[in-house]
Write a structure and sequence with these properties.
Order of helices and strands: EEHHEEEEEHH
Structural class: alpha+beta
Number of helices: 4
Radius of gyration: 19 Å
Distance between the termini: 31 Å
Strand order of the largest sheet: 3-6-7
Largest sheet: 3 strands, mixed
Strand content: 15-25%
Shape: globular
Helix content: 25-40%
Oligomer: single chain
């Protein structure tokens, strides 16, 4: 049972279409994982849950926190610790007449969540970016996490009908080290 935050464009009101500014809300997306489901069944459940959640995208996350009477703690988000972003349009240039803009991604040295995962499509590849709290994770841990994530992605792209319980994120040498080396 996990909750992951995901930003969504908050321009579902036609009156906002001609206004310059950032209108983004964050949807808390809750999923229960049944290890007996195939990945494809899990994916369909996630799709349904996301589409249902989009119906409520105008409901501000701050109002949800207040309505649920969740205590506030300035050091963390009360609903989720992980944010997942898929930049479905990539990072496109914006051209306004003679003015050409490019994206500037500042390195703030601050993680807004325990872990943020961002996927940005670019031509024929997907760029994977991690932002994380260095109080919780170190660079070696994040490298292992990204390798395991990529391994899982390879497994499910090869066979979407594999059961969740059969997806093994460990590489053979890691499994041998854990099973044989540590014992």
């Amino acid at each position: 049972d996990i909750v992951v935050g995901s930003p969504i464009i908050g321009r579902d009101n036609s009156q906002l279409l001609d206004i310059i500014g950032m209108f983004v809300n964050t949807l808390p997306l809750r999923a229960k994982i049944n290890q007996e489901n195939t990945f494809n069944e899990f994916l369909q459940n996630i799709k349904t849950m996301c589409l249902d959640s989009f119906e409520h995208q105008s409901y501000p996350v701050d109002a949800l926190i207040n309505d649920l009477k969740i205590p506030r703690d300035n050091s963390r988000n009360p609903l989720f610790d992980v944010l997942f972003t898929y930049q479905n349009n990539g990072l496109k240039e914006l051209i306004l007449g003679d003015i050409k803009s490019t994206y500037y991604l500042p390195d703030t040295k601050i993680s807004k969540f325990d872990l943020s995962i961002e996927i940005v499509p670019e031509k024929d590849i997907l760029n994977l970016n991690f932002e994380y709290s260095t109080n919780l994770f170190n660079e070696d841990f994040m490298q292992n996490l990204s390798n395991h994530y990529i391994r899982i992605l390879k497994i499910i792209t090869e066979n979407q009908d594999t059961k969740i319980s059969n997806i093994d994120m460990l590489f053979i040498e890691e499994k041998n080290r854990i099973v044989n080396g540590f014992n």
